[in-house]
Design goal:
- Among the domains are: 27-59 and 221-298 and 368-459, 3-Layer(bba) Sandwich (FAD/NAD(P)-binding domain), CATH 3.50.50; 82-217 and 462-546, FAD/NAD(P)-binding domain (3-Layer(bba) Sandwich).
- It is of the alpha/beta class.
- Helix 11 (362-387) packs antiparallel against helix 12 and helix 15 (518-538) packs parallel to helix 18 (594-606).
- The protein starts with 26 loop residues before the first helix and ends with a strand.
- Strands 2, 3, 4, 5, 6, 19 and 20 form a seven-stranded mixed beta sheet that branches. A five-stranded parallel beta sheet has the order 8-17-9-10-13, with helices on one face.
- Helix content is 31%, strand content 15%.
Length: 618
């Protein structure tokens, strides 16, 4: 194992083996030293030029976007038909929207999906070691509806993909689905009160209702680094893993890499899972790291069949609600999940705001959170030094930032991989990432690291998919596009509907409430949309649409409730949570959190909400 030496501790104190100031130091001194170190590590990574840029898998990089899992192409004639609802996106958001609509008797429902099957992220991501990092008993939706109990506490990717397919079968969604198809435009017809959905296959599908569920992290990205187009070795993105080159499968044993020098760019959640398999198989592995992830204990295990057999009806909702309440700062009688997420609930308030802890004065609340944060990060840094044998490498792998500056990571094999003699950690912090590529090498700090293969574990572009980005234009009433209607900022009711765009819904995180278990949030949104559609059908409504007044009132509520996390994110190292070191001034979510938001939606449905604002009868 080789690594460049870590920077000196700028606090001036003498760190212990765990990377902490001596235990005898007063708490105030320890906090002050940590703040200085955090600021220094952030500044090392802050862009000196225009900032880290990324490119999508299109244009000259379009070949990276090919579907390696698709069966032979079957030609079909363009569709010219009508359905009651079109759902855009075949991931779990789209599956939830379609399933909840089907439960309300809506049909036909056509799901339009880019991939060759259902699954979304879990269709594309099949890299070695892939698992969910949220407990599968709360992460996977529609478990009781499909009669499923996951086989692992944290399910492997293939089990999750097969569950997506099971949802499609259970709700008869395959019958009308269009795979290997992308929506190119939506156009509202005022006279007939239907949408025309156009696709890249020449389809023109008429639908009374359209639900966009394309996800906020669905477009793979590559770092726009000088020379990326000149590299002549083998390359692929982790969401398009090339097993024809590496050999093996999602369980590892990548025999094709035994004589290969492999480079990995990116050290987030994906890398935590695939790097151990690359390290075990490659002749030499170079891990190019700008910022280390925090890596806590995973402790995955198989599901106890006796526990599964004893589950009573309603167990899935109870467990999901229990988890959501805990991670947003609420209290319950028993922590049913009891893992790294529920154990760090207070720290998560820095990313997912809620109405918890508001009984404390701001100063007391912030100090309490910061002390808890420091204790947790000290624990994570100590774990690195306990596991990684080389002190220089351990220093580089220690995360020096607040807990929710980056998505927390969990692994029982990632840190151990750096004890292998064939695995090399390359620090890129001082150059804010990889400098450039040559035909055969990755250049960092003027040093060329020759590799045969480059694996891009660089994640997904944030917010460039679907309606909100204009990736496919939606022409509403009067031919106005959604991007034109939102020229001065998004304007929605509950984040799901917009005035001027009747019968059009979008699932996501915009102007509503989020959670680390995003599928639970999407299920609540899908249920809400299906309930609205059911009410419209029952009352013979021509269309549903928020009034301008209701929409304006919700935007004002968001502005009032949105948490101010700018100061916290400005102190974080650059990443997608803080827009690469340039955090936005204000969040656009419901600041009281998901528990309060879901209660608000239920009360709105049970009250006069649909009468007063949404349902417009003939």
């Amino acid at each position: 194992m080789t690594a460049s030496p870590p920077p000196a501790d700028p606090s001036g104190s003498s760190p212990s083996a765990e990377g902490q100031v001596p235990e005898a130091a007063p708490v105030a001194q320890e906090l002050a030293a940590a703040r200085v170190r955090y600021r220094t590590e952030r500044d090392r990574r802050m862009p000196t030029g225009p900032g880290r840029r990324y490119t999508r898998l299109t244009g000259e990089f379009g070949y990276w976007d090919e579907d390696p899992y698709a069966p032979p192409e079957k030609t079909r004639q363009p569709l010219r038909d009508s359905v009651e609802a079109v759902v855009i996106g075949g991931g779990f958001g789209g599956l939830l929207a379609a399933a909840r609509l089907r439960q309300q008797g809506v049909g036909p429902v056509r799901v339009i999906e880019k991939g060759s099957d259902f699954g979304g992220t879990w269709y594309w991501n099949r890299y070695p070691g892939i698992h969910c990092d949220i407990e599968s008993y709360v992460y996977l939706p529609l478990l009781e509806e499909t009669g499923t109990v996951p086989g692992w506490k944290y399910a492997p990717g293939e089990e999750i993909r097969q569950h997506a397919r099971a949802v499609g079968r259970t709700f008869d969604l395959y019958r009308d689905a269009c795979f290997r198809t992308q929506v190119t435009a939506l156009r509202w017809d005022e006279e007939t009160a239907v949408w025309t959905v156009s696709t890249d296959r020449g389809d023109r599908v008429r639908a009374r209702y359209v639900v966009s569920a394309t996800g906020t992290l669905s477009e793979p990205r590559l770092p726009a680094i000088e020379g990326i187009e000149t590299f002549r070795g083998h390359t692929f993105h982790t969401s398009r893993w090339d097993y024809a080159y590496t050999g093996g499968d999602a369980n590892g044993d990548l025999t094709g890499l035994r004589d290969k020098r492999v480079g990995v760019i990116g050290t987030g959640a994906t890398a935590l899972q695939c790097v151990p398999h690359l390290g075990a198989s490659a002749h030499q592995l170079y891990v190019f790291q700008r910022t280390p992830s925090s890596v806590d204990v995973r402790a995955n295990r198989r599901t106890d069949p006796r526990w599964a057999a004893g589950l009573a009806p309603g167990w899935h909702r109870r467990r999901r609600d229990n988890f959501l309440t805990l991670v947003t700062g609420g209290s319950v009688e028993e922590d049913l999940v009891a893992d790294g997420w529920t154990g760090t609930a207070r720290l998560q308030q820095k990313l997912i705001a809620s109405d918890a802890y508001r009984d404390l004065p701001d100063g007391v609340r912030e100090e309490t959170e910061e002390l808890a944060d420091l204790a947790k990060m000290n624990e994570i840094r100590a774990r690195v030094t306990e596991i990684v044998q080389d002190p220089a490498t351990a220093g580089l792998l220690q995360p020096w930032y607040r807990y929710m500056c980056k998505r927390p990571g969990f692994s029982d094999t990632y840190l151990q991989t750096f004890n292998r003699p064939n695995v090399h950690l390359v620090d890129t912090a001082d150059t804010q990432g990889v400098e450039r590529f040559t035909e055969r090498a990755v250049v960092v700090g003027g040093v060329e690291y020759e590799v045969d293969c480059l694996v891009f574990a660089t994640g997904f572009a944030v917010g460039v998919s679907g309606l909100a980005s204009g990736l496919f234009p939606a022409y509403g009433r009067g031919g106005t596009t959604l991007t034109e209607a939102w020229e001065e900022g998004p304007r929605t009711l509950h984040g799901l509907t917009t005035h001027g765009f009747p019968n059009l819904f979008q699932l996501g995180s915009l102007q509503n409430a989020a959670s680390v278990n995003f599928l639970h949030v999407l299920d609540e949104q899908a249920t809400h949309v299906a309930e609205i559609v059911a009410a419209a059908r029952k009352r013979g409504a021509r269309y549903v649409e928020p009034t301008r007044e209701a929409q304006d009132a919700w935007v004002a509520t968001i502005e009032e409730k949105a948490a101010d996390q700018h100061a916290f994110q400005a102190e974080c190292t650059p990443g997608y949570y803080n827009n690469e070191g340039m955090p936005r001034r204000r969040a656009n979510g419901y600041g009281d959190g998901p528990v309060a938001f879901h209660r608000l939606l239920r009360e709105w449905r049970e009250g006069t909400g649909m009468d007063e604002v949404l349902v417009h009868a003939e």
